[in-house]
Prior knowledge:
- By secondary structure, this protein is mainly alpha-helical.
- The protein is about 65% helix and about 5% strand.
- It has one domain (about 15-80, about 90-255).
Amino acid sequence: MHPNLFELPIFGGTAVHTYGVLLAGGFLAAVGFCVHQARRYGENPQRILDLCFYILIAAIVGSRLYFVALEWPYFSQHPTAMFNLASGGLVFYGGAIGGTLTAMYLMWKWKLPFWRTCDLMAPAVPIGIFFGRLGCFAAGCCYGRETHAPWAAVFRDPATLAPRDIPIHPTQLYAGLDAVILFVALVLLQRVKRFDGQVFSALLIGYAVLRYLVEEPFRSDARGAVVDGVSVSVATGVPVLLAGLGLMVFLGWRARSARPA
Length: 261
């Protein structure tokens, strides 16, 4: 709705983008949650804080590279635009891949309990997603199809990335609501989990399903497509869903097998 939060009276009136501010806020909230969780789990809060910092860097790089790959015909002609994040060009799945690989390496290097740490940090992911989707709503990216529902959003700001003056589904807010639901479900699951890795597996399953339920029927933003109309939610979400289901079954079986008869 409001891509630019305000303008600084320096450097020719540099705009402060709402997307970036909300993204930063989401990171701080997620990190605060992880530090709280570290104390609850009996882990070193400083080590978890360090882990969050490196995951953030890897997630931003990975999500941007994924987006650039999806939009390569455009970026091949405008290479400097690759470094402009104001347009909201970050793809969650790319960030998830980059962040996960970095986390795996650092947890191995620092000898952290792998699946236990994954469970500790899993609910922080939807916190970041929630703030990120609010940023998307502000910027107008990831917009929905035209609708005449009473809750339709109408974007009028000249700087918006959404179609202007047309009532459309506020898919960004749908996805934000999904993030809240996922966060609550993961926190509740932490209290009753039966094996390490169960909460992380549920994160993969839940996110893939919820994103599909929002994007397939409601999203219209062409930047969400990979090729021939196949969306990111399907092209990447299906492998993520299968990985989550596979982990849930394997880790559950391993935990049961390890229990004394």
